[in-house]
Amino acid sequence: MTPKSLVLTVVALGIASTALAQVKPEDEIRFRQSVMNVVGRCFGPMIGMAQEKIPYNAEVVAKNTNIIQTVIGLHWKSFGPGTEKGAPTKADLKIWSETAKFNDLADKVQQEVGRLSQTVKGGDEKAIKAAIGDLGKACKSCHDDFRLKEVRT
To answer: Which of 30, 49, 55, 132 has the fewest C-beta atoms under 10 angstroms from its C-beta?
Structure first.
């Protein structure tokens, strides 16, 4: 599956999930996992570039940033009431008891994605690498607080 078709599939699932009045919790869990899979696949090479572990490629950064910006907001609503169980997940139950903190961290991730997108348009490699690092920190803070190391059922 190409990155473009993967994104289109995730977007279609997002539209379909909001169109249904009664979505099963296991479907929401799988949906948010799919979105995070796309984000991770796009972000991984960018982190490697920011850490100078792989050569910098402006085209890859621009393409992957666009994909992340397109899909990053799709999964936040999939953490709604009743979606804390239903399928294996690494989502910590604190998401549903510390909703304000979770939402604040989600907003920070959204802001950093937007900032990265603007920085990519400027074309300054050093600034882009710094923005990638800032997004990585925002993602990590949410994962540190709300993602379990082991899958729970």
So the answer is: 55
Half-sphere exposure of 135 (CA within 13 A, CB side): 29
Mean pLDDT on 78-107? 95
Residue 41: both structure tokens together: 């696949």
Reduced to 3 states (helix: H, G, I; strand: E, B; else coil), residue 77 is helix
**Global pTM?**
0.83
CB atoms within 10 A of CB 45: 15
How far apart CA 6 and CA 41 sit, in angstroms, is 11
Count: domains in the chain: 1
CATH number at residue 137: 1.20.120.10
Q: Hey, is 91 helix, strand or coil?
A: strand
Question: CB of 128 within 8 A of CB of 61?
Answer: yes
> Domain residues for 104?
3-152
